[in-house]
Amino acid sequence: MELRKVPIEKPETANVILGHAHFIKTVEDLHEALVQSVPGIRFGLAFNEASQERLVRKSGTDDALVELAVKNALAVGAGHFFIVVLGEGVFPINVMHALRTVPEVVNLYAATANPLAVLVAEEGDQRAVLGVFDGQTPLGVEDEAATEHRKGFLRAIGYKLG
């Protein structure tokens, strides 16, 4: 068995969501969940089939983001892996709940704009996602000033009241 670290290619500020699902209707159900969550959402979606034709199924509202999602899904290559590349102004927090309610979704691995890589195990014609590398390691622990800054920021962008 071989282990590989597969970097996720994306624009620096783009958010991506990585997950694991099953069944051929996953692509359509994820697409519907996304468009029903954020009116006018721009995204690209790719899902790796794990049996039968073993195609990368794709969908989305932005051709360039769909192409990027497909490129990353092929690079990871794990069966039933999916990736959503979100367009500018859309954040994972806007769509995560809807994605979790899609019956085919088994797991969500990451939702981030950070530099991201996937740890993949490969054995013969199979690949598995073992985990993700999301961002960098912590540099310290927040102090009182950092806590106040965090709370102020969340209120400034409207995610908390008051």
TrEMBL record:
Entry's transmembrane regions: none
Cross-referenced SUPFAM superfamilies: Ta1353-like
Source organism, top-level taxon: Bacteria
InterPro entries, alphabetized: Adenosine_kinase (IPR007153), Ta1353-like_sf (IPR036902)
Record-linked PANTHER family: BLL5354 PROTEIN (PTHR36155)
Protein name according to UniProt: Adenosine monophosphate-protein transferase
Organism, as annotated: Oceanithermus profundus (strain DSM 14977 / NBRC 100410 / VKM B-2274 / 506)
